[in-house]
Amino acid sequence: YFHERSFNCEVLKAPARYSARYLKSPQFLHQQMNQGRSDSKAPRQLAFAVPRGRTPLTDAFTTAEDAAFWIHNGIDEHGIVTAMRKNLDQRRIAMGGSTITMQTVKNLFLSHERTISRKLQEMFLAWHLEQTIGKRDIIQLYLNVIEFGPNIFGITEASRHFFDKTPEELNLKESAYLASVLPS
Q1: 165: Cβ–Cβ under 8 A, 6 or more apart, which residues?
Q2: What secondary structure letter does DSSP report for 11?
Q3: Cβ neighbours of residue 42 under 8 Å, at least 6 residues apart?
Q4: Whole-prediction pTM
Q5: Residue-level pLDDT at 33
Q6: For 31-58, how does the pLDDT look when each residue is reduced to its tens digit (9 = 90+)?
Q7: Between 13 and 77, whose confidence is greater?
Q8: How far apart are CA 13 and CA 20, in angstroms?
Q9: Residue 158 in contact with residue 174, Cβ under 8 Å?
Q10: Whole-angstrom Cα distance, residue 182 to residue 172?
């Protein structure tokens, strides 16, 4: 439930699955990382925690995917307007305008269908996620659930697959490469 306050929303009550306590729990992240895995495959393990502040790894991904990540509220209004204009010009969905927070929400809670109603849900939940857990936790969730290619999910699997390293061992060039291989 929410009400309007000076053109901003305030969440008065949210389901438990959207609470900070649940979203920050190891069980939640473990569940998200292992979603869709059959019992025959080894479960993915959380092996990466984003250090306090910015790192070359997080900078590579925010530069490639969402340059204003550290300063916006989860939604980049300019990016969405730009995407809408491009989509109207090309008469197809050519650009999404999603921030890292919006991509995280989509990957964790929503379908991947391209509809206006899904985009509106994504925007509200991105705003709520920013209010609930903050940037450090959002970038950690993002890096641990993002798809880097067929059956390669999360920064730990990607850094092992491409460089036989842990995420902590990646240099800036390797981090930038991984940011560049994300599916469009």
Answers
A1: 159, 174
A2: E
A3: none
A4: 0.77
A5: 58
A6: 665 565 444 455 455 545 555 557 889 9
A7: 77
A8: 13
A9: no
A10: 16
